[in-house]
Structure formats: C-alpha cells, structure tokens
Amino acid sequence: MLGFLVGLFAVGRPFPVFREFLTYAATAESPTYGAAVMIIHGLGQIAVLLGLFFILVWFAGKRMMQWATEKPHQPRMLTAMALLGGGAYFVFYWGIAFIYDVGRWGFKLGWY
Asked: Cα separation of 4 and 38, whole Å?
C-alpha cells in the first residue's frame, strides 16, 4: 500500500518544473543553500506521503491487519500488482513516450 501511495505521488511530477527547481538550486551560487533547498524539498515530499500513510493506518489499520492475517496472499498480490504497474509506467514514461515524443502534454499546452 505504501508503494502504491509513493507511486501515485510521483506520477504527477512534471519533469520540466522539477528541472527548473534543480537549476534554481544549482545557480544559487552557494552549495550550502542549494543543498538546503533540495533537503527541504525532499523532506516536504516525505512529509506528505507520511501524512497519507498515517491517515491510512488511522482509519483502516485494524481492518488491514485483519485482512492481511486472514488472507495473506491478497495484500501480497496487491503490492505486486502496484509495483508492476509502477514499473510499467516508468518504462513507458521514460522509454517509449520519451523516445517517440508521446504525451508531452505540458509542452503541447504551453505550460512549460
């Protein structure tokens, strides 16, 4: 379930915006400032996902534990399918779509 949340969080990251952020951090003319900006960015991402995970555990923790105890193959299958889906998306986004210029909707709409 945590892998699924991480995967969904990473799906919407537009690469050009992230590249501009990295450029900003690199051109700050201070390695310390650039590193601090990157650390704050990473901690912000972790905080959002950690919050989502705690909400999931708070509202469905007991049911998830009961489900995992009674039918251990189902959570394993769900996790495996989420990892396979994330891997397939990774291969498509950085392989097929990148090579054949498929789906660069942000550029086509003039957002970048």
From this structure: 24
**3 C-beta neighbours (distance < 10 Å), count:** 14
In this predicted model, what pLDDT tens digit does every residue of 61-70 receive, in sequence order?
Answer: 999 999 999 9
Quote the tokens at residue 56.
């999931």
Radius of gyration of the chain (CA): 18
Residue pair 10/85 in contact by the 8 Å Cβ criterion: no
Chain CA centroid to CA 78, Å: 18
Other beta carbons less than 10 A from residue 56's beta carbon: 15
Give me the domain span that covers residue 6. Answer: 2-108
- Helix (H) / strand (E) containing 68: helix 31-70
Structure-block tokens of residue 17: 């915006």
Number of compact structural domains in the chain? 1
